[in-house]
């Protein structure tokens, strides 16, 4: 089954889990609301949309598409805030095979979105990658969250490109570089406190992943600290943050058991990985 791909432009920022390019959405103002209501029509093979049969329901901060006996797709509920930082009401739903997002508060609303995914069976019940804890951080600090909403993209793309020999992206040097870049860009784009809170939330959410391990979390926490330090040392220079973290990733120490080393990492001048590739 194809991915459920909401897309966006004109201030609407949406992406799927894999950062794939999307066709443009169609923002429009519904006659019965002052808000923004972008929709994603099923127009071609690059925008397969969500499965048309079944019903929609809200569950645990998401709207999900259901068929008898199975959840077939889920879309994380977006958040929005206005120019003053006040929360903006958001409604998400399916109309036939079309995803529709309605942002109240008038055209000044700035929407934010977490990844949309499609899955079969009970996958969404097992692992929901939008992250409840990360969402709470964004709800508490929406302006900072909006400022660094795109930090994940270059972190994922650059780290994967830097290590073409790696067939996976977890627990290896690709992972090490990605976390460093992500935390560095979040720090540079906001401040140390926000980056640390978001990284901590990410690790808590990650425990729901069936592949979670304590060693992986210790590794992540170490390289998150490095990313924050790289961001602090390179204020106003995001490209230097990226290149520094990629260099650290290439030189990453392979530490299968992170609790055997000093994890305080006060200077943030290296990263570690459990394995490679």
Automatic annotation (TrEMBL):
<feature type="region of interest" description="Disordered">
    <location>
        <begin position="1"/>
        <end position="65"/>
    </location>
</feature>
<keyword id="KW-0614">Plasmid</keyword>
<feature type="domain" description="DUF6973">
    <location>
        <begin position="137"/>
        <end position="236"/>
    </location>
</feature>
<dbReference type="Pfam" id="PF22322">
    <property type="entry name" value="DUF6973"/>
</dbReference>
<protein>
    <recommendedName>
        <fullName>DUF6973 domain-containing protein</fullName>
    </recommendedName>
</protein>
<feature type="compositionally biased region" description="Polar residues">
    <location>
        <begin position="36"/>
        <end position="46"/>
    </location>
</feature>
<feature type="compositionally biased region" description="Pro residues">
    <location>
        <begin position="21"/>
        <end position="33"/>
    </location>
</feature>
<dbReference type="InterPro" id="IPR054246">
    <property type="entry name" value="DUF6973"/>
</dbReference>
